[in-house]
Structure formats: structure tokens, C-alpha cells
Design brief:
The protein is α+β, with helices and mostly antiparallel strands and 811 residues long. It contains 16 helices and 43 strands. Among the domains are: 156 residues, Bulb-type lectin domain (Agglutinin, subunit A); 140 residues, Phosphorylase Kinase, domain 1 (2-Layer Sandwich); 188 residues, Orthogonal Bundle (Transferase(Phosphotransferase), domain 1), CATH 1.10.510.10. The two termini are 26 Å apart. 42% of the residues are buried.
């Protein structure tokens, strides 16, 4: 199966037939080389793993990935440098495992197949008599009956140009995702058919469209034959159709006799010319290493400025140019990297955001930040105001994350902050951070009662003072104030203890409060094996908060109030945007009630299986959100939480259709000898991992299995079990999905989903991830952290085995 079904932005990996792009006077294939005849093959771990060029300067073959030692890419690399730098690769988005093979077949096709025999890549030509790797680093397929190669790697580059190579109109260089990850990255250099040479930021999966350009030759209209040339003498220039040459480099030319050279679109979006000395005399000066001699643009931090997208760095971060003119991504105060290993992914607040339903303005403050700007995040602008007004406007606005005050004007910015860079805003930039942990609304009437008690005490003091002598008044004042202080301290302490769990933002509700909030538990939102959920409304003096009240069955922990409270405490310490937020609980008598935030867009079940199919992009976003939430529960909580019942009914959607995992703590509230079904198995039919049926230990991998089933439901928009499907082979989605994948019939699995069909590369990736998750052997399933990385493109997705097979597990 040809698994590289890519979009138009991945043309460098599609490898169509093209004509020779190098002028006849510089045809680099006219040199001495060793022909590789039909029947020649390479394997990742065999005797022959690569082919060298005649001089030994380059090699072509399989390279093991540093990020995953079990995966390989087909590549060309400098063979005499340290490190041996890769300059071209064929299957960056689909690496292969041991057992794969590259062969020049008997009919003259160069074909890469994986360990199962499925074809992963071929250049799209046949009848080649031989293949050869030239001393220029150019791989060619040729035949004596043709004067020019049938195909050459120079015609379809990856992220690098070599001397003698030309980037012709319609072709692009794409950066890698990471230095050790060869999937498509965040930037592109495009030689456009309108005559312009342009650097673009690229949108992430699944769209990969181009954002606003951050550098260009501004030669639009110069002709459709303009092209970027890296000459054999080491000159890098843009040749216009009329013969004009625009120098791309500014620091001169380096002899190709003395230096190895390459021009690479790096991971950070900087197009860089590197040189590496060949001679010992030069190495004494330059060092035995690659040296950057030109960078374009000179300051990417300030050049990338897009109306959509995050900028040179990720959202909520800012870009700082280091001494080598490379971007360094950093987080502002009280923010943390989403992933410290991939700082370009941006930052997230290390605190609960200000509520829009409660008045929490007193819980936050604005800190002054110097030398930083987010120029594209403004949403409101005030004039003729002072700094105090500006601060007040931001603190009272739950959407405001940053305010800028300058010369009587105030700008408010909201999350996510984009295009962050160092710079002077010409005034003060103020970022909102918490003073302390924000609290939830106090119980109705509590504050008023305390105020009434204070007023009553004051009235008593006034009455006594008016009717007493001076000395007696002095004694009374002292005694009364001591009494007031003690009473107020005890009242405040009791209030804090009664309404919140110490150290957590969890409110302890009374049963009466929740009965009133739900109007006698009248509006049921749903029910399940744990209990029923009701809609409620919390009323405060200046705010109304919609809540979801889950009344647990009375069989749960009837005899252990302390254990219930301790487990709720552990659940209350979880904070993640893909988890439903727990407001508080009731543990009164036989009543065990949990109070959650209300999710207005219902469950994933209604979202997926309603009358209209949701958009493909929304479904992909939902899937990645669920994966992030589960990875947090498994790996980032102080104590690991295993959900045990992942299914669409337990995934809720907020007002922005962000996926939120619900009931993630209820498994912890069950006794070890309790069950949810009469079979003694926790979970729901169709989503239950096979190990539940065996006498084996249960681990977080049960959630991975359930996620895999649900992932297939999300991408196919159908339920896992459909007895009425009319076709026995399609009745169980997990079996049918693997059959379609194995037989190369993913279009059949996608059905009539035109959006998914237009993005078959991503569709196939999601299917492969799902198949890894539903492996019957738990050790073969990846962790949710690994799943999350595969979905985001940070880790390559290898070809999955039959779910019932047993092979070496991935880690």
C-alpha cells in the first residue's frame, strides 16, 4: 500500500515524474559512478544497509532514528562529516521498522516496502536500468536509452539544497518537525510559479496550510521560470526568468573544493547556509564541525508576524534571538512550557484562569514585564485613561490576560497570546497573575450572615457606650473588642473549614444547598452505573454559575466518610483543560454528591452520532484533547489515576467544543472488590480491554485500549458495535478497521467523508495510532504520553501489527 497519501503541501515526498532541472552545462550525472543494477536491495539491519558515492563523500540507505531506535528512514547523508548530516529523505512521515527493504526491482522500479510487504514509497518511474548515487549527493534512476535521468533526488528536495541543485517553480523545502523527527515541520521555503521566493510558517496537523510570509525576494511577476540555484562553485542566488540574479547569501562564497556545503531550512524556520572544512589546514581554523555562515532572515523573531498562527514560537511564549541569531522560545511569569522538550509548542498558565462567572478580580494582580510584546493579541483599546484605569479594566475582565498602557491609551490582550517577541512597547506591559488560589463562590447567605453579626456587635457596643460611665466604658470597650476579635476569628476559621477543603479550591456543599440549586434534582442530564447527573444553578450576590450535580449511588462508600473525602481531595488536585473541573462535593449522611462545572455542548456521543457529521478538523482536535487529558491523568498527577471507563458518554464538550474527560476520579471512589457490572468487569461493553477478562493486573493500558476504540469511532463517525450494519465484516469497528488498513482500503473506512478523504495522510496516521492502542497484549500498547506525541507528530508512527499478534513491545 502506498501510505504517503499527502496533501499539496507535501509534494516533496510525493515524488512525481519531473524533467531534469539542472542546465545541460552543469549536468552532474555525467561523472564516474558505480551502477546499481536491477535486483539490488538494501535492508535496515542486513549486510548491505547503504550505498556510498564513488568518492565516499555521500551515502544512501537506511538511517536509524535517534528519537526511536526501532524506526528507520531512507535517506542521503554526508558520509565524511561528523555528525553524518542527512540532506535528503523519502519517508520522513512514515518511518519503517526492521524487516523493511529497498529494492531496484526486475521491472526497473525503486521500491521501499515495510516489514509486512506494503509499499511505503517509490519515485513513480519504471524501466530504470540502474540507480546511482553521484558525488554531488544526487541519487538518479537512469537507462542507457535516455540522455537524462528518469528521476533524480535533486528534483524533489526535503529540507536541504546541495551545490549543483536547483529549486524550480512549484517546489518547496519543508523543515523537519524536530532535529530527530523527520516528519513535516512548521516552515516552508517555496519557489512560486509567480516568480517569488518565499518563506512561510506552516499550520500544524491536520491542515498544514501556509500562513503569512515572513521573508520574500519580492519578485512576484518576474516570470514562471525563476528558480533558486545553488551553483557547483558555492554561489546561492535566485535566477529570474529575464536572466537577473539576486544573491541570497551576503557573506561571500566558499570554495566547494575546500568545504562541504549545504543550505538547510532548519527546524526553527531559519534558512541557513553551512560549511564544513574538508582539509586539515581548514579544520585547524574552522574546527571539525558545521558552521553557519549565512542565515535568512537575520531576525526571525521579529519577521514572523501572522494574523493567524502563533508566530516564531508557540502561543503564550515569546521569542528571543540568541548570539547565533537563532530563536530561543521562553515563557512569561507564571507560565510553563507545554512540553519542555519542544519549547516551540508554546506555554500554558501555571494557574487557574480568572472565572467569567464569579467576581475574582481581587484574586489577581498585574505584574510589569519589560522588553516583551505580543503585538497581535489586542481585542480592546481605550483612550484618555490613566494607568490605574487600565489596570482596573483588565483585572475586572475575565478575558484579559495582558494590558499595555502607553501615553493615556490602554490595550487589552487575551489568550492565546501570539507572535511573542522581545521589544519595547513604548509604555508598560502588564501580565495578569494570581495573588493566591482563587476560591469558589461562598454558600448563599454566608457572607451576609457574617456582615449581620458584625453589625449587631457594633450596635451592642454603641448602646452600652451611651449608657455607661467613662471608666466602665473603657472596661467595656476592652472586653467587647476582645470578644469581637475572638468571635470573628472563630467564625472566619469555621467558615473557611466549612466551605472549602483546606489547601484546595473545593467547596463543601450541604445537601440542602444542592437540593435548592437543582430545584429538587428535577432536571436530569443523564444517568449511568455510578448515579444520575442533574443540572443546577449556584446563585451568588453578583454571579450565577451553572453546575452539573452527580448524585452517586448510596452503595458507594456508605461507611467511610473519611476515605471518600480523601479520594475527593486527590481528585481535586487535578487541573487540566481537558478534564471537567470539580467544584466541590457533599458528604452528608448517606448522600455522596460531586459538583462539576456544566458542559453546555453535551457528550461526545451526541456530537459524533447526531444527524450531521461534525467537521474533520473538529474531530481531530477532540481526539488530541482527549489524549492530552488521559496523558495528564496517567503521568502528571501526584498519584496516577486510571479512568477505567473511557467512552464517548464520558467525554463532554465545553462552549468551544474542547473535549473534557468526566468521571475520571470515580474509579478511585470504588472499593477494590466493587464492580460496575454483574460480570465483575469495570467498563462498558465494546470499550473493555481484554485483560479485564483475564486474571492479570490492571494498569493504565486499559484506558489506552478504550481510547483506541473511541479514536476509531471519532475518525469514522460510527459506533464500535453496529449489529444492524448489514455486513457481518463491518459489525465490529475495530476488526473492520484493521482489515481495511491491512488490505489498503482506508477509503472504504472513510466512507463518504470528503473532508477525511482530502486528508488521507492524517486519516491513515490516526488509524495506525488506534490500531496500536487496541493491541490485545497490553505491553504492545503505547502509553498515553506516547499516543499524544504520535497524534501531534512529535513521534513517528510505525506500522502496527495485527492486534492479536505478539511482537516486541513499543515503549
Amino acid at each position: 500500500m502506498a501510505s504517503l497519501a499527502l496533501s499539496r503541501h507535501l509534494i516533496p515526498f510525493a515524488l512525481f515524474l519531473l524533467t531534469l532541472t539542472i542546465p545541460a552545462t552543469a549536468q552532474t550525472y555525467a561523472q564516474t559512478y558505480a551502477n546499481l543494477s536491477r535486483g539490488t536491495s538494501l535492508t535496515p539491519l542486513g549486510r548491505a544497509t547503504s550505498w556510498p558515492s564513488p568518492s565516499g563523500d555521500f551515502a544512501f540507505g537506511f538511517r536509524r532514528l535517534d528519537s526511536n531506535a526501532s524506526l528507520f528512514i531512507l535517506a542521503i547523508w554526508f558520509n565524511s562529516t561528523s555528525p553524518q548530516t542527512i540532506v535528503w529523505f523519502a519517508n520522513g512521515d512514515t518511518p519503517v521498522q526492521a524487516g523493511s527493504k529497498l529494492e531496484l526491482t526486475s521491472d526497473g522500479q525503486l521500491s521501499l516496502t515495510d516489514q509486512t510487504g506494503n509499499e511505503i514509497w517509490n519515485p513513480g518511474v519504471s524501466n530504470a536500468s540502474y540507480a546511482a548515487l553521484l558525488d554531488t549527493g544526487n541519487l538518479i534512476l537512469s537507462s542507457p536509452s535516455f540522455s537524462s535521468p528518469l528521476w533524480q533526488s535533486f528534483s524533489l528536495p526535503a529540507d536541504t539544497l546541495l551545490p549543483g541543485q536547483v529549486l524550480t517553480p512549484g517546489l518547496s523545502l519543508f523543515s523537519r518537525f524536530m532535529d530527530s523527527n523527520f516528519s513535516t515541520g512548521r516552515f516552508a521555503l517555496a519557489a512560486q510559479t509567480d516568480g517569488n521566493l518565499v518563506l512561510y510558517p506552516v499550520a500544524p496537523l491536520p491542515s498544514r496550510n501556509f500562513y503569512d510570509a515572513y521573508w520574500a525576494t519580492d519578485t512576484m511577476g518576474s516570470g514562471s521560470n525563476s528558480r533558486l540555484v545553488f551553483s557547483t562553485s558555492g554561489d546561492l542566488y535566485y535566477a529570474l526568468t529575464n536572466g537577473t540574479q539576486i544573491n541570497i547569501t551576503s557573506n561571500g562564497t566558499y570554495s566547494t573544493e575546500d568545504f562541504y556545503q549545504r543550505a538547510t531550512l532548519d527546524v526553527d524556520g531559519v534558512f541557513t547556509v553551512y560549511v564544513y572544512p574538508k582539509k586539515e589546514s581548514e579544520k585547524a581554523i574552522w574546527g571539525d564541525k558545521w558552521t553557519a555562515v549565512d542565515v535568512i532572515p537575520s531576525d526571525i523573531c521579529t519577521r514572523v508576524l501572522t494574523d493567524v498562527g502563533s508566530g516564531a514560537c508557540g502561543f503564550n511564549s515569546f521569542c528571543v534571538l540568541d548570539e547565533n541569531k537563532r530563536p530561543d522560545c521562553r515563557c512569561p511569569s507564571s507560565y510553563l512550557f507545554m512540553d519542555s522538550a519542544m519549547k516551540f509548542k508554546g506555554c500554558k498558565p501555571d494557574f487557574e484562569l480568572q472565572s467569567c462567572e464569579l467576581d475574582e478580580s481581587d484574586s489577581f494582580k498585574l505584574e510589569t514585564v519589560s522588553g516583551v510584546d505580543w503585538p497581535k493579541a489586542d481585542y480592546e483599546h481605550y483612550t484618555q485613561v490613566d494607568e490605574e484605569n487600565c489596570r482596573s479594566f483588565c483585572l475586572s475582565d475575565c478575558l484579559c490576560a495582558v494590558a499595555v498602557y502607553r501615553n493615556g491609551e490602554c490595550w487589552k490582550k487575551k489568550l492565546p497570546l501570539s507572535n511573542g517577541r522581545t521589544g519595547n512597547v513604548g509604555g508598560k506591559l502588564l501580565i495578569k497573575v494570581p495573588k493566591y488560589n482563587a476560591s469558589f463562590p461562598p454558600p448563599p447567605g454566608t457572607v451576609g450572615a457574617m456582615e449581620r453579626n458584625d453589625r449587631s456587635t457594633l450596635i451592642l457596643v454603641e448602646s452600652l457606650l451611651l449608657g455607661s460611665s467613662g471608666l466602665l466604658n473603657l472596661i467595656l470597650i476592652t472586653a467587647i473588642f476582645a470578644m469581637v476579635y475572638c468571635c470573628h476569628s472563630r467564625s472566619l476559621m469555621k467558615h473557611n473549614q466549612d466551605t472549602t477543603m483546606l489547601g484546595l479550591n473545593l467547596r463543601i456543599f450541604t445537601y440542602k444547598e444542592l437540593e435548592e440549586a437543582t430545584k429538587g434534582f428535577s432536571e436530569e442530564l443523564g444517568s449511568g452505573s455510578f448515579g444520575a447527573v442533574y443540572k443546577g444553578l449556584l446563585l451568588a450576590s453578583d454571579a450565577r454559575t451553572s453546575i452539573a450535580v452527580k448524585q452517586l449511588h448510596k452503595t458507594l462508600h456508605e461507611d467511610s466518610e473519611k476515605e471518600f473525602t480523601n479520594e475527593v481531595r486527590s481528585i481535586g488536585q487535578t487541573h487540566h483543560k481537558n478534564l471537567v473541573r470539580l467544584f466541590g462535593f457533599c458528604n452528608e449522611g448517606t448522600h455522596r454528591i460531586l459538583v462539576y462545572e456544566y458542559m453546555c455542548n453535551g457528550s461526545l456521543t451526541s456530537f459524533l452520532f447526531g444527524s450531521e457529521r461534525p467537521s474533520w478538523i473538529k474531530r481531530v482536535q477532540v481526539a488530541t484533547g482527549i489524549a492530552r487529558g488521559l496523558a495528564y491523568l496517567h503521568d502528571e498527577c501526584s498519584t496516577q489515576i486510571i479512568h477505567c471507563d473511557i467512552k464517548p458518554q464520558n467525554i463532554l464538550l465545553d462552549e468551544n467544543f474542547v473535549a473534557r474527560i468526566s468521571d475520571f476520579g470515580l474509579a478511585k471512589l470504588l472499593r477494590t472488590d466493587q464492580s460496575r457490572t454483574s460480570t465483575g468487569i469495570r467498563g462498558t461493553r465494546g470499550y473493555v480491554a481484554p485483560e479485564w477478562f483475564r486474571n492479570t493486573a490492571i494498569t493504565a493500558k486499559v484506558d489506552v485500549y478504550s481510547f483506541g476504540v473511541m479514536l476509531l469511532e471519532i475518525i469514522c463517525c460510527r459506533k464500535n458495535l453496529e449489529a444492524e450494519a448489514g455486513d457481518e465484516d463491518r459489525a465490529v469497528l475495530v476488526y473492520w478497521a484493521y482489515d481495511c488498513y491491512r488490505e489498503g482500503n482506508l477509503e472504504l473506512l472513510a466512507g463518504n467523508d470528503e473532508e477525511a478523504m482530502a486528508d488521507m495522510g492524517m486519516f491513515e496516521t490516526l488509524v495506525m495510532v488506534a490500531i496500536w492502542c487496541i493491541q490485545e497484549e497490553p505491553s504492545l500498547r503505547p502509553s498515553m504520553k506516547k499516543v499524544n506525541q504520535m497524534l501531534e507528530g512529535a513521534v513517528m508512527v510505525s506500522v502496527p501489527p495485527d492486534p492479536s499478534s505478539h511482537i516486541t513491545p513499543i515503549r
